[in-house]
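2 proteins. here.
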Amino acid sequence: MRKLITAEAVVTGAGHRGTAVLVDRGKILAVGQREDLEQPGLEHVAHRDGFLYPGFRDAHLHAVPYASLLAGCSLKRATSIDDLVARLESHAERLPPGKPVVATRMDDEHLAERRLPTRWDLDRAVPDRPAVIYRYCGHVAVANSEALAASGINSTTPDPEGGTIDRDASGHPNGILRETAAGMIAPALARGSDLDPATLIAGLERLASLGITSVGAMMGYGEQPSEKLEAEVEVWRAAAPDLPINVAGITITDDPALLRHAADRLTGASPRLRWLGVKRFADGSLGGHTAAMSAPFADVETAGTYRLTEADAAVAKNALELDGMVCIHAIGDGAVEGVLDLFSELIATGADPKRLRMEHASVIRPDQVRRFADLGATACVQPAFLASEADWVADRVGPERAPWLYPFRSMLEAGIPLAGSSDCPVEPPHPLWGMAAAVDRCGISPSEALTAHQAVDMFTTGAAAAIDEPTPLDTGTSADLVVLDRDVSEATPEEIRNATVLATYVAGEPVAWDPSPPAWID
């Protein structure tokens, strides 16, 4: 049966398009004024005080760690090492005896000591079983003594390529594992490693409650070993028949055989699950001082960790041969330069620029903005980073580079396609919070602010293109919609943040969710 969904207005990043959407068998048949779309035999769904938008897309998030977090332990609000230890102790007490303790979103910038905890701090909290905590950026892990032993990490273990095992004065690992070293954690201790399909589905329903209808889901917990990616792919396949939203899988691997295996396993499992491409890393994070900068940080004498290798270039070519996308993480301007070089090489050998994505582009020089635009690749950005980094990021890069932080307006005006995302659980998955941050900038380089219309477009049309979906609301596309209680395209940042999702539709059908569990745990 055909369905007419009506509201106060149909709103897109380009403006208002009427008051109704006509849906036929889950597809958009027409968008316009209600009186023009009326016809006999229609099912009517009226949202009289609501505003109808294209469904929000998050082009880059980690759905399995997110779902795991909702039932797990977040350390973001810990205020000191002692507070962190107490939170871990409390979480461990709720787990079955012997079960490893895994916690996420630790933020050393907000601890009184302003330092990362060590194995000995974690040993105080959990002395009798493995425990691992992850910094909220995802690029630093801290393991207790039991977890180090279970992972085979000791004083004779060399640093892996692209990573660092921090050590004490005697050369013994102090528990802090940076970049690829965090991937050395045993698979059983990885974030979300024991997640079941039902919990994953519940997490995706939480995303739908935020108006999200499609995600670019990063799949894989880290670099080594490969079993982590294989395990996650199988969880996705098991959940595939019941997915409430659309999922485009982006697999984290530098192994061509594993890439093809993941692509094969994700293809055909469900109309709502597909393989999209590969993700690689050119560097780390600003918070962890592992972003690759062209000159040292202003507050620490290091220029970060540059990670891009020939293996990354090779697997990027493999992904393109499979008709997939290439998504490469680049935070610092040194990493941005390396990724632009690689994209230039790929384009020179025939790659479609629309298949190339740079993830984050956090510190990007004006000359790099122009070069990026000339290449025609996409920037997948996270405005929510502005909110979480506002207190310290300017000091980290120094005044000369501060104007290069997240220059969304300059990038958009140069012609770089921008896709909105959260990198959840690094940041909350709320698209409205991301839109608001893009508009008010949280005090960081206000001249780079976007308009509310541009922010909406980034999380709808822009993000849809970045996950290889057609332009939302075009005739024949899936009727993926969200209804809000206000017109956020004409709202202040605070009004955008406080908007309420009234309904979410995927393929023309409303997505149900339990309103009692939170969609985010800080």
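next one coming up
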Amino acid sequence: MNDFDARAAQARKEEVLHSGSSRSTTFDIAESWRRSQAAIGDPGNIGEVPHVPEAVLDEHLLDMFGAPMNRFAEDLEGTGLALLLADSRGQILQRWCEDRQARAHLDRVGTSRGAVLAENVVGTNGVGTVVATGSAVQIRGTEHFADIYQNAVCTGAPVLHPITRRLLAVITLSCDITPRTDLLKPLVKSMTAQLEQHVMSVEQPATRQMLNVFLDQSRKREAPVVAFGPQGVMIQSQQANTLTPRDIALIRALGDEAGESGLYELELSTGRTAIDLTAMGRGNNIVVLGDASAARPSRPVVAPPTRIAGRSQEWLAVVNRIERLRGGDPVLLAGETGVGKTSLALGSPHRAGHVPSTARLVDAAERHIVGTLQWLTQLREATAGGTPLVVRGIETLDAPALDGMRAVLESKPDGLPVTLTLTTDAPDEVEAFELKFGARSVWVPPLRDRVADLAELWAALTASVAPGQRLEVRADALSLMQQYRWPGNVKELRQLISQLVVSGRSGPVEVSDLPAAMQATKNLTLIERVELEAIRKALQEAEGNRVKAADILGVSRATVYRKMKAYRLVG
């Protein structure tokens, strides 16, 4: 690197950490080093990068920014640069590696989907330091706090909400140390500017219209004003900051289901509230205005959907068994990722960030961020009050945390319903958790074992993800979907619908609209489907690396290439 002296940077860092010197350094990197030291201690304490399960990641952000990020990534092929999208907590939502060099770089530093790169977890870096400072940064080599990044250059910048200026996400370019990285900072800033423009959806006149109405009503009204636009864009006035996530969910559901302007009434956290709704067409392109001085509404209360989709024999058997077990010993819901365990535990369709008032949800993955002691304290507090408790993702807990959770649950008030969720592909792994917590387990079937529910699930998810888009799946497309293995289960189905919405699709969904991997299942024999699924899982485990996938499968690389071509797999 032309202007970077690794030894000098290391010496400056050691001087700051050991003597407290505040000698001038790049931006406020000395302050970042101090924050990192206060949170972590010695840089050598950082070993592997911690990860949270995919189930806790904000898919909404990925849906919103996925299309432009894909376009950015296309221009990076052959550069060795990897592109990262992280949420406001420094959790990696997705990575884009357009060549082997970029993929190998991220593999070496442990940066994959779900990686936690918050500054208080892995120290100074091009994701967590952006979150901590709210500013664009470039961290080079030994300027990183942790030794694992000493051969990396990370250039990150914040994506701010164009109205509220709240941090939405962080995008980062990461690569091995190489000359001429000085131009990466303006490049990343240009990308974030485009993403902020994307939030406004300038290509969609309906969003501009929505914004104009929002600004007009915000000036006229002193009451909270909340606007919902295409692709999940949400804007709220300063007065609306007091609304709880549940309030927002109820207001959004009102707009989705009402379909027309008028006065309505909802039971919010502050009590019965009059809602003045301005519907602007195209599904969720609406503006909701809350005004306590409004006249008594003439329209009925509209509540979000409360029933979990599914009427197959396999699904109803699970639902009925859970209902019979509630209220006694802890109930353990186990199954593959994305099968709907959290929704079953809550008793209603689950949306990230929204929990019904009838339950308390504690996410085990939070333990990786706040630490075991604080997480167990939160768990103990959640057992007070008598509200049914749901602990999600206990497979992410280590042995001390599991022992601590057992102690907390053993001291809970008598009669408090407790439901635990466990993500696993192997039913025989459930027994150990049953014994540890004295729980009664229920195995939640994967989507491939209840394909009779696909039509109802499609209808329910399109109503939630794409109201007004009329995404009606054709019979031949539905038949093909029923042959597919659905490794991501219901979550994968939701992502498919979201991708169709982002691509601008509306109306009937044909076979040609389905992903290539799904189309490849057409007319396959049982053995071919098993082979296809094995290759797909190996590629997923290897994060697209075909050489690693071949090693996992125990076949040659040429065989993997030939099979991928035959099954039209993209990797």
